Amino acid sequence: MEAVPMKRFEFFEPTSLKEATELLNRWGEKCKIVAGGTDLLIEMKEGNVAPEALIALRLIPGLSYIRKEDDSVKVGAFTSHRALEKSSEVRSLFPALADAVDTLGSIQVRNIATVGGNICNGAPSADTVPPLLVHDATLTIYGPRGERVLPLNGFFEGPGKTKLGTAEVLKEIMLPIPAGITSSVYIKLTRRSCMELPLIGVASCVSFDPEGKILEGRIALACAGPTCFRATAAEALFPGRKIGERFFKDLGEAVLRESRPRDSFRCSAQYRREMIPVLVARSVRECYERSFKEERRS
Q: Is 158 exposed, middle or buried (0-12, 13-18, 19+ CB in 10 A)?
């Protein structure tokens, strides 16, 4: 593909969230925020977007951290995927998120790309979003009127579209610590083992009683609709069920009814429809195996 010359643009590096929101308010839809920039710069080089101004967040202090506080873990929006990958707390408490960042791009990309950027980009292929959805993440948004808190579930309005206001910045992601016998899994179906977007991504988080009966479960998908989404209707099937083929069949069919896969240059909608029930069953089974493997160790 022939390179498209990028148009000239203004470049700003605010040193506070207040300054960033003032710039966003001044430039409106003519500007773009730069976090890691791993998606935006490609879009600019290909001529798909041509902002008149870029607002880089890298000089704003206090936006990169992973902090355990009481019954939750808080993650700064500017935290890199590499930091998530290396975090022992993420691996032990939110294994689906660790699964996702393990296979996201290359180490070089993970050192630059941020969790906030992956969320706010609004891509239906965002690897970290399904794990964050099944772990019931909430977002702290900073804007001209101060802070507001939104659930991640329902944050996406369409491809590239979110509930983030024109002059707002994502500040923090909060993840409640799972209780009891709970584990999570993210399975990414790809053509290659690395450096690849998902053909389908499925995250599950399941809680069990000591006998292995399901107490609660959540499922979220990437590349199965116009946005990443929770399969909330299918989740009603979880309570009281036992792991088994009958349950997997019912659950896979229910998730498929909520999915809206499409044809793309990477694979067909039909292939996605065939693989969704397979990956849903596999992810729930792995949640069970992880839960009781850890339970036997304790």
A: exposed
* Residue 252 shares a structural domain with residue 144: no
pTM above 0.90, yes or no: yes
Q: Are 194 and 163 in contact (CB under 8 A)?
A: no
Query: How many whole angstroms separate alpha carbon 89 and alpha carbon 185?
Result: 15
Express each pLDDT in 38-83 by its tens digit.
788 888 888 888 999 999 999 999 999 999 999 999 999 999 999 9
How many whole angstroms separate alpha carbon 34 and alpha carbon 13?
10
Phi, psi of 65 (to 5 degrees): -170, 160
Regarding whether 100 and 154 lie in a shared domain, the answer is yes
40 SS3 class: helix
Which amino acid is located at 228 in the chain?
C
Instruction: Look up tokens 């050192």; give the residue.
Output: 111
What's the number of domains the chain is made of?
Answer: 3
Q: In CATH, what number is assigned to the domain containing residue 103?
A: 3.30.465.10
Residue pair 68/90 in contact by the 8 Å Cβ criterion:
no
Domain match, 185 and 286 both: yes
Residue 276: give the domain boundaries.
Answer: 181-297
Same domain flag for 71 and 94: yes
Point out which residues pair with 156 in neighbouring strands. Answer: 162
- Residue 199 per-residue DSSP state: S
Assigned token pair, 30:
């003519």
Identify any residues that bridge with 216 across adjacent strands, giving them in sequence order.
Answer: 207
Q: Which residues of 167-179 are buried (b: 16+ CB within 10 A; e: fewer)?
A: bbbbbbbbbebbe
